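Final report, closing paragraph on structural work. Over the funding period we assembled a curated collection of sequence-structure pairs, and we close with a single example.
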Amino acid sequence: MRSTRVSHSLVVYLAAFFIFAAFAHAQDSIPSRFEVGPAFTAVHNLNVGGDAGPGAEGDINFGSHVALDSSFNWLPNSGSQTVIFLIGAKAGIRREHFGLFAKVRPGFVSTAHNLQGATFNVDTGQDSARIGRITERALDLGGIAEYYPSAHWLVRWDMGDTMVSEARTEFNFIGTNAPPNLSVTRGITSHFQFSTSLHYRF
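Its predicted structure, as stored:
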């Protein structure tokens, strides 16, 4: 029994040693200068509920560990025609077939058919709402996993928190003895984001 345990332990130690040695001597994958490709993104709790849609991504690589990373997404399912554009830094490690990165990407979220404000006439009881496109600042923080099946192709998965600085909504009151105007700001809201994409490297 004891010899069997020793044999099993020896096998485990040798396997761990060879795995560690292989990782330690693995060479960084040298990326191409540019990457571009289609993407599909799902965002939860953007406006209300979730939304998903197509997009495009592109990178400019500055060596193996740092890149300028950007994405453009169109989320039509909510009926509000939401557009998200983000551009920022991607940094991490890259090996022959896999890469792991962190991302910090500022940008904006633009949504159509939103309530921009309203005016109330306290004398007549009439009101008018202003509906239009609202563009808000955003910041995307998260992680990226990449798989390199060949020299010119990669498959990518993103996960993170897209934080949106919500715009201010103005409510105006007119008429006799009208109360002061009211301004409502929801502050910064968080939206879980997941996307997958296929990039061509050149």
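The two ends are 57 Å apart (CA to CA). Confidence is low (pLDDT under 50) at residues 1-14, 16-26. We thank the funder for supporting this effort.
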